[in-house]
Each structure stands twice: as structure tokens, then as C-alpha cells.
Amino acid sequence: MRSFSAFVFSSRMRLSRLKKHKLVVSLSVVFVVAILIFGPPVYKESWLDPFNTLNVPNRELHPHSIAQLGMVSSDDPFHPYYSTDVGKIQELMHNLQRATPLSSSDPTLASLKNQKVHYFTLHRALSHYHEEEDYALQYYPEMGIVRFRQQAFRINESTVYAFTQITTGMTSGWWK
Q: What whole-number distance in Å separates Cα of residue 78 and Cα of residue 73?
């Protein structure tokens, strides 16, 4: 087992060898610091993300850019609700990436007119990458169907669970 003084002496010897390569060491430190500072925002709004959400490219409807979610139910249209729980909203957006589109001739689409519906507003906040914008989304809980931009999608159980978690934790009113 090595003693503490041997470890200190060994470390000092290694550091003394680095003095010969000051330029390489300083460039490495600057590179690491730049990655730590600029890495997370670039990854958060990555334009290289190959996926899409609800047949919309992620550079327009990126899952990390949606920070607020508003809801109005067809049962009570005069009492809006909202959620700002970013973790649950991002989980919902990631689950919506797995939604499967329904054809316009699908017989279940004809029965949607008499179903209970939740009208959601997906709020994209202003950032370096895009402007502030709201997206409308209709969710039919009994059918497990979402309608977005004139197209219907069937969602899986994890998306239904995410919707349930969000709607139970919503605050009455509208965000400011």
C-alpha cells in the first residue's frame, strides 16, 4: 500500500512533466470548459435529433421545448387547468413520439364526435432556437386517440398513463 507522501510526490512529478506541454494542457482545459457550458443547451434543443413527434419534425416541436401545458375539458369548458411540471410534460412528449397515425378511413374516427374530449395547449417557450408558440392537441381518453394538426393518432398505455398523471396534478386557472 502506498503512503500519502509517495502519492503526493508521484503527482508532483507528473505535473512537472505537464509544464513542457502548457499549450496542449490549456487548450484541453478550455475545450472541456466549453463543452460543459455549451453542451447541455445544444443537446436540449438539438437540431440533429432524428425523431419526430406527431409527424412534426423535432426542430419545430421539440419535446424539451414544451414547458407548460393547458387543458380545457369538454365536460366543463369554463374551468381551464394548467401544468408546469416539466418532467411529466417531457415524459408525455417523448411518449407521443411513439404514437401511430390512423388513416382517414378508420371507422373509429367517425365515433369521436360523441366522445369526451380534453383540449390541450402545448406551450413552447421563447428560446434561441425558436419563437414562442402554442399548439392545440385534442385527447379522447375513452378511445386512446390524440388529434393533432388535422391528423389522428393512436397512443399506447404509457402515453395514457402520462396524460392521467398530468391531468390529476393540474392547477386550476391558466398560466401567467
A: 9
